Amino acid sequence: MAHDDKEAPEVEQLKAHHIHGHDLFSLKPRSKEPQGPWREPKAGFDAERHVQNGGNLGVRLTATDLVVDIDPRNFPEGRDILAELRERLGTDLLDADEFPFVRTGSGGFHVYLRKPADLRVAANLNRHGLPGIDLKTEGGYVVAAGSVHPDGGIYRWAEDELWMPSVKDAPAALLELAVRNELPASIKTDCPLTVEELIDRLNGLDPLEYGKGRYEQWIELLISFHAAAGGDTDAMLAFQAWSERDPEYANGGAGPSIEDRWQGLEADRKGGITWQTFARHVAGVAPSAEIAASDFEDDLPAIADEAKPKKPKKPNVEVDHPVLHDWVFVGDASSFIRRTDFKQYKQEQWNAMFADLCPDRNLPSLVYKNKTPVRKFEELVYIPGRPPTFDNAFNLWRPSAAEPRPSDTSIIERHLELLLPDETERDYFLDYMHFLVCRPEVKMMFAALVVGSQGTGKSAIGLLLKRTIGKRNVSQPSNGEVTGNWTAWQQGASLAIIEELMTLGKLEVANKLKPVITDDTLRIENKNMPLYSIPNHLNILAFTNHDDAVRLEDGDRRWMVLSSPMEPQDDAYYDDLFGWIGSEEAPGAFIHMLQQRTPKLNPKGRAPMTAGKLTMREASKSDIELTIEQWLEEQSGPFAHALFRVDDACDELRRSAATKVSQAKVRTALKRFGCVKHPRNTNAGGGLPTCQLWSCRDHTKWEAEGPAGRAKAWRKIEEANDAFDG
């Protein structure tokens, strides 16, 4: 696609990436090539400024990202691959109402979807007879919207306004096509050494000798070590730690991660690199003292050059320092975690703190070999009610220190009566708090939002819950954290309290919180830390002074909105209230009070309808929605006839509305008010129009007419309009 004019990157295209939580990094101008190491986030990187300076951007993909990269240039001549894909999936990935996607600078498409974090996918769909469709996920990247293709085309979101559907789970049919054939994690190998002995030999090598400019030697070592270890996971972690001793590697570089490379190898592949190649690499490496040198010479064939000078033997090193008993290592988070406060460090940070305890200043390698008191766990979880460790998992949940004790709770009961005088709504709130406090193992499928005037003591409820549940089980994110890219605030808590939910960015807030409210897992991503997922047991309680704090759709099931008419009280009232909340007996008394309830609220059901929810739903309607609603009621404007085109509705809105109009926003509003999109007529025979038609009423009638019947009716409407205008 050639372009005569020199296109410039478009900063406004970045907003949708921020809404979706995408992690952006720098590419060279008018290029797909990274501008330096890209695997790890760069502190202080300003994406907007980079684009303003003419640079391109990439989207660093995570384990739960799945981007379908469609390139029609690679479709076989005479085949409609997109139609074949639609038929296989039962849905259209290029339906802008359903899936957010970018039109690439070369005429292709990037469709953004979600997948399970542990699902490994193939690179493309070629094996299913669908060429031209690639799959991108963790370890890869795609060019971001707003960037300029080398040929001059701009990468743009499918709509002219950055208001689009949230990223959805990939269709099940697509995941079935995408799944990569996997081998078992460990395969029998004829290498005579144990994994521990192999790791010992590996650590005797200098990673700098396999560093910059020596990629072929490094990859040969990786493949041969994999073959020797039979694909063992501990061996993979050890190879990663060994590689990161080279600063060039530790600072990040292009290409797949070691884990991705490791999983893609076949330890028993015939005719490939074998464990004997690894033996050649370590021929000059003496084993540790605990492993006799004769073992190495007896077990391994005499394939090494015996003339090579032997490196000095490494001493048998074990480190048992009291401080190390406070730490654990968790594999999926690739992090060291302190037991007392759950402080989390990536491996190089942790080693920097404690390297002086180890002679070779590589303490993590001893952890991998079980030479320290640091316990290793496979996964990080937060599951209320389960023990701190179970099934090779490290559980971040800890029970509250508060014990239920009967005591006077009249102060908090009075406050709740003033805050929510409607008994039904107050019962909803008390039931919600019952589950938060008495049954924290229950993940509720909707959030609670209390709306009321400033200065009435709404936050007192949050303070009491924090003291009752335990502050380590409560997160208090700011609006910036909620809408930002990092999600560490979601980890290690059963309750997130948002003190003041702001109307600014209300769409972003609603979109960001959707997966927190309803998904089974949470994707935890923090600056300079690896991405991982944990089970979702996080519930949300938010407070706001604004009636339109969250954009609510008709049929919303995620938000229980409770409106408070309470006015601020005198100082003595709040002295008593906060004095009681801060007292020693308050948490136990509150637990006892809530335990007496038999909740009627269904924690797994739809959020109940309330007066506050109706008010917020109306208040959150945009000018466009209000105008469309009025036209539909009056059967005027573009809805004077039962059939209409979205383009005509957009044109009418642009003439009457004082805000920018996008087709995506209009289509969503039309669906909200019950309008129906019908299949278009694709046969232009007889001069029939092939435009996309919608109906605003009489839907059954127009569905029965079929595409050709609707096209004929539309042609009559156009002819009548032309005659009227004439």
TrEMBL record:
Stretches for region Disordered: 18-40
Pfam families assigned to the protein according to its UniProt record, in alphabetical order: DUF5906 (PF19263), PriCT_2 (PF08707), Prim-Pol (PF09250)
InterPro entries per the UniProt record, alphabetical: DNA_primase/pol_bifunc_N, NrS-1_pol-like_helicase, P-loop_NTPase, PriCT_2
Alphabetized GO MF terms: hydrolase activity, acting on acid anhydrides
Domain DNA primase/polymerase bifunctional N-terminal, residue spans: 14-174
Coiled-coil regions, chain positions: none
Protein name listed in UniProt: Bifunctional DNA primase/polymerase
Species of the source: Parvularcula maris
Source lineage: Bacteria, Pseudomonadati, Pseudomonadota, Alphaproteobacteria, Parvularculales
